[in-house]
Amino acid sequence: MEDREEKIIAVIKAILEEFQSVYCTPRYYGEHTNPVEKFTQGYCGIFALILKNIFEEGIFYYIGNDKMGHILLKIGNNFYDATGKVPSSFLNSGTLEELSSIYEVTNALPWDFLYDSEKTSYYDEMIDRCTLAGKYALNNFSNSKMKK
Questions:
Q1: Mean pLDDT, rounded, for 108-122
Q2: Interhelix angle for 3-23 vs 117-147, to 10°?
Q3: Are 81 and 48 a contacting pair, CB within 8 Å?
Q4: Euclidean distance between the first and final Cα of the chain, in Å?
């Protein structure tokens, strides 16, 4: 695995760990909530937004067919979601199209993200916390590689 991909995977793990520690609790989604499932079954756009906050060069993509739709972030030549690097077999399972604006991404987010003011502030906090965890992991990853 190349250095860049290792960084991205480290960031994804940090995002999932932050989500797990804060939001997989009785107060929010319940302690038995799996963060990967949450971010791949309805919250994929939020995960892509978090990754984009960290990897600004990333490009949003939508993959869909008659059974599902999913938002990914392309960083370099690879696509990523909460599962990590997306395999080509998944990319071949539907029509892949670039989303040219943030509005196309937000249209695919849960309705309460956009229209429920209480939930919007909750989502903003979640995005901020997970973004900070990811940026911290990226910084630590870079520093640990420099020390070796």
A1: 62
A2: 140
A3: yes
A4: 17
DSSP label at 101? S
pLDDT digits over 17-47, tens only?
999 988 887 777 767 788 998 888 878 888 9
Beta sheet of 59-64, edge-to-edge order: 84-85, 78-81, 69-75, 59-64, 95-98
- Contact by Cβ (8 Å): 56, 120: no
Indicate the Cα dihedral angle 50, 64, 59, 115, nearest 10°.
-40
pTM of the model: 0.85
Residue 130 CA to residue 123 CA, distance in Å, equals: 10
User: If residue 56 lies in a helix (H) or strand (E), which one and from where to where?
Assistant: none
| φ and ψ at residue 58, rounded to 5 degrees | -60, 150
**Residues 86, 79 contacting (CB under 8 angstroms):** yes
Q: What is the mean pLDDT of residues 100-116?
A: 63
